[in-house]
Amino acid sequence: MGTSRILIVTAVEVERKAVLRGLGHENERVKVIAAGVGPVSSAVQTILELVQSPIPFDLVIIAGVAGGFVGRAEVGHIVVADQIRSGDLGAESPDGFISIDELGFGSGSIEVEEKMTKRIYQTLMQAGVPVSMGPILTMNTTTGTTETAKRLVADYPEARAEAMEGFGIATAAQKMNIPVCEIRSISNLVGPRDRDGWKLQDALLMLEEAFSKCKEVL
Ligand SMILES: O=C(O)c1cccc(C(=O)CC[C@H]2O[C@@H](n3cnc4c(=O)[nH]cnc43)[C@H](O)[C@@H]2O)c1
Hints:
Elements lengths: L5 E5 L2 H11 L6 E5 L4 H14 L6 E10 L9 E9 L3 E2 L6 E2 H4 L5 E3 L2 H13 L4 E8 L7 H10 L5 E3 L2 H10 L4 E10 L10 H15 L4
Parallel strand pairs: 1-2, 1-3, 3-10, 4-8, 8-9
Antiparallel strand pairs: 3-9, 4-7, 4-10, 5-6
Helix pairs in contact: 1-7, 2-6
The structure holds the ligand O=C(O)c1cccc(C(=O)CC[C@H]2O[C@@H](n3cnc4c(=O)[nH]cnc43)[C@H](O)[C@@H]2O)c1.
């Protein structure tokens, strides 16, 4: 749609390939990179890409698979973030988790680019893709117990999904004054670890479909 340059950042290569299949091909406006698993690796790789690019990027889109919170995002659905939040940046205490905001050391959430977020969400809705919108949490550690899942559901009542890169990549983009969006395809539910139960292939196919439906509005 626009003439802006977009950097799409996934964690792993299979996600990058799914996005590329959806887009049809990479072009001079849209670049897709796999920046590594977790907020640190993905943030560092993103900032390197943004700083080293001869032509500046206007938008960063975080994309990949994610865990959905039970009753809030089903496996096979797409979640578009209306907020990118760290789910574990802070301190533990006997009275519960204390966020980085409450500690007074900054903010654990980053706002998304509203116009593009709405455009992506509406495009997917109109195309009949199962999609919902809400905060996506970023975790250093994939949740694998009922206890942690309960803590997250209680602390972030609006959160739809968790993944491991969003807050890192968004922080890198924010430092460069570049707006961000996040789109995730749900591969598993957040809860007791069941790695064999992850529907990775289905989620990657849905990620591909989401980008194929959205390519005209990017
Ligand atoms: O087998 C594992 O425990 C495992 C640990 C880290 C990463 C993976 C991946 O397969 C990497 C892909 C990517 O998946 C995102 N993801 C998917 N589901 C979840 C989740 O329930 N909680 C957090 N992250 C999730 C994440 O962004 C990874 O980078 C496997």
